[in-house]
């Protein structure tokens, strides 16, 4: 039986750009657009030409996309102006986009209050704008803003807006839950009613996540009849975000209710690039990936309970609703005091450490992990530190260097301009394996740990080339016991700007600087180990 086609419309570069703190450059947009094209989406909405220089430049270029249609976003013409005399609409029409998506008011309340025009003027401007896009030889999509709220308040007018767009030649009439307040059962019901007026093959859905229902609303809209789906990678967007395509796409492909009926431009082979696409966006945004994100998060297929770990090894489908590899992710059986030998063995196997299942060293490693966790260590979030520990007990890890001593000074003083500042300075004395002469390094930072990090990475002799791109990107401290002699656990996240790899290391000590330094040492040693750096 042939499957019905669903069309994916990604708005990361336009809707996603409205996220607080997000500001894409032209190069950022080129990179993300290429990733989306490779993933297999049908449309990439590149921005709003005429609204800012970045979008104008980006959409003024000939699209380099191989299969997806580069789409420009804009507004229907203003009342009282002709199409040719509306600068905003002309900027969109002048772009080199393959398709155009225009937003229109579909709630009579917003037509009256926001636009200050009559319902008839709004419909007339919509029809003229759609015809202008069609005459330019490009597909036209119409975002019916506030459609669901408008429909509930004045059903006939909202339907008139959708019908006008369709009859004027719009390829897609997109129903928008603009404030994110509509619930799933309402979406399915209303979409079903709209399909009696406009064919579902021309209907789309655009939801926001203000009630944490954007993904559910999108799926219910598909059930209701829409065949065009809008959303953003990782669900970024204004306020609480947009419908998360990173969750929607694998649900459509891997869950039988949808997979048996529909197909998309994202094939099963391309779906394996999903986790990579998600991480690329986070890298461009310079933010940490959401470890608990469905399908693509590092913890999406992770467990630390021993009984669950054993079951997963025997029957993965018991605790995994899809296979991690289907979305480009991987299983993580976390090492912790709640885990058992199965967790240790599974992790060792994944790390590629050669060891037999009956090797007594595995039991010793498990005992060591539990002993360490009893004094404050935690390896479930610091896999790099665990790999170092495991390889030191089961395999071979060279001794690349040793720290003979370090000193950290924090001084509050007046600078040359007379401003009171606090300065941190660290001095580290290191012996590189095979060298008799020590290396002294000094680093300054905005705190003692930052200064230590800079000093440690400033000069490691022949190993320096391996750590040139390494930087500390996150630093978390947890006080494990109270009082003045509290034990501190430090979790450090490191990032290699050259390879894009990230890893976590842990340190524990009553002294926060000692704990921090232990985590920093693990981070550097882990990087050297992964690079197969040659010890003397």
From TrEMBL:
Ordered alphabetically, the record's keywords are: Amino-acid biosynthesis, Branched-chain amino acid biosynthesis, Isoleucine biosynthesis, Transferase
The UniProt GO MF terms for this protein read:
(R)-citramalate synthase activity; 2-isopropylmalate synthase activity
> Has UniProt tagged this entry with the keyword Kinase?
no
Q: What EC number(s) would the UniProt record show? A: 2.3.3.21
Q: Which SUPFAM superfamilies match?
A: 2-isopropylmalate synthase LeuA, allosteric (dimerisation) domain, Aldolase
Pyruvate carboxyltransferase domain: from which residue to which, for each copy? Answer: 6-272
- Keyword Amino-acid biosynthesis recorded: yes
Q: In which pathway does it act?
A: Amino-acid biosynthesis; L-isoleucine biosynthesis; 2-oxobutanoate from pyruvate: step 1/3
Q: Which reaction does it catalyse?
A: pyruvate + acetyl-CoA + H2O = (3R)-citramalate + CoA + H(+)
| BP-aspect Gene Ontology terms | isoleucine biosynthetic process; L-leucine biosynthetic process
InterPro entries, alphabetized: 2-isopropylmalate_synth_dimer (IPR013709), AIPM/Hcit_synth_CS (IPR002034), Aldolase_TIM (IPR013785), Citramal_synthase (IPR005675), LeuA/HCS_post-cat (IPR054691), LeuA_allosteric_dom_sf (IPR036230), PYR_CT (IPR000891)
The record's family statement is: Belongs to the alpha-IPM synthase/homocitrate synthase family.
Q: What is this protein called?
A: Citramalate synthase
The organism named in the record is: Hyphomicrobium album
Q: What is the lineage of its organism?
A: Bacteria, Pseudomonadati, Pseudomonadota, Alphaproteobacteria, Hyphomicrobiales
């Amino acid at each position: 039986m042939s499957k019905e086609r669903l069309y994916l419309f990604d708005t990361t570069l336009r809707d996603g750009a409205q996220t607080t703190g997000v500001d894409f450059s032209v190069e950022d947009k080129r990179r993300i657009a290429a990733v989306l094209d490779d993933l297999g989406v049908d449309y990439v909405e590149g921005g709003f030409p005429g609204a800012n220089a970045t979008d104008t430049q980006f959409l003024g270029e000939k699209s380099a996309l191989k299969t997806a249609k580069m789409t420009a976003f804009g507004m229907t013409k203003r009342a009282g102006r002709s199409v040719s005399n509306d600068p905003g609409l002309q900027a969109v029409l002048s772009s080199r986009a393959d398709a155009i998506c225009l937003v229109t008011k579909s709630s009579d309340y917003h037509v009256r209050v926001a636009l200050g025009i009559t319902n008839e003027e709004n419909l007339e401007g919509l029809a003229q704008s759609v015809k202008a896009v069609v005459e330019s030889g490009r597909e036209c999509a119409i975002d019916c803003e506030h459609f669901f709220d408008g429909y509930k308040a004045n059903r006939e007018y909202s339907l008139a807006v959708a019908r006008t767009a369709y009859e004027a030649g719009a390829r897609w009439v997109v129903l928008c839950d603009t404030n994110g307040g509509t619930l799933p059962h309402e979406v399915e019901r209303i979409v079903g009613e709209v399909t009696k007026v406009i064919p579902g093959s021309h209907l789309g859905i655009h939801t926001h996540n203000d009630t944490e229902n954007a993904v559910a609303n999108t799926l219910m809209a598909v059930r209701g009849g829409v065949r065009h789906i809008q959303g953003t990678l990782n669900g970024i967007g204004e306020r609480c975000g947009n419908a998360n395509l990173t969750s929607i796409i694998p649900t459509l492909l891997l869950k039988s209710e949808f997979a048996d009926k529909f197909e998309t431009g994202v094939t099963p082979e391309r779906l394996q690039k999903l986790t990579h696409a998600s991480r690329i966006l986070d890298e461009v945004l310079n933010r940490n990936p959401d470890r608990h994100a469905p399908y693509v998060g590092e913890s999406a297929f992770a467990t630390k309970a021993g009984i669950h770990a054993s079951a997963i090894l025997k029957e993965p489908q018991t605790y995994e609703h899809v296979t991690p590899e289907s979305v480009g992710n991987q299983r993580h059986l976390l090492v912790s005091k709640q885990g058992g030998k199965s967790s240790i063995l599974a992790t060792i196997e994944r790390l590629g450490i050669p060891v037999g299942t009956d090797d007594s060293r595995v039991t010793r490693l498990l005992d060591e992990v539990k002993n360490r966790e009893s004094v404050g260590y935690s390896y479930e979030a610091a896999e790099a530190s665990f790999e170092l520990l495991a390889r030191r007990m089961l395999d071979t890890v060279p001794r690349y260097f040793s720290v003979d001593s370090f000193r950290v000074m924090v001084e509050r003083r007046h600078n040359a301009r007379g401003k009171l500042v606090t300065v941190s300075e660290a001095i580290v004395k290191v012996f590189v394996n095979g060298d008799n002469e020590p290396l002294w390094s000094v680093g300054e930072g905005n705190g003692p740990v930052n200064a230590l990090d800079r000093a440690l990475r400033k000069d490691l002799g022949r190993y320096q080339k391996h750590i040139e791109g390494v930087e500390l990107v996150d630093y978390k401290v947890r006080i494990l016991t109270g009082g003045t002699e509290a034990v501190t656990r430090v979790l450090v996240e490191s990032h290699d700007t050259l390879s894009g790899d990230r890893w976590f290391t842990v340190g524990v000590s009553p002294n926060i600087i000692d704990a921090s330094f232990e985590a920093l040492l693990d981070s550097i040693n882990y990087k050297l180990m992964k690079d197969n750096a040659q010890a003397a």
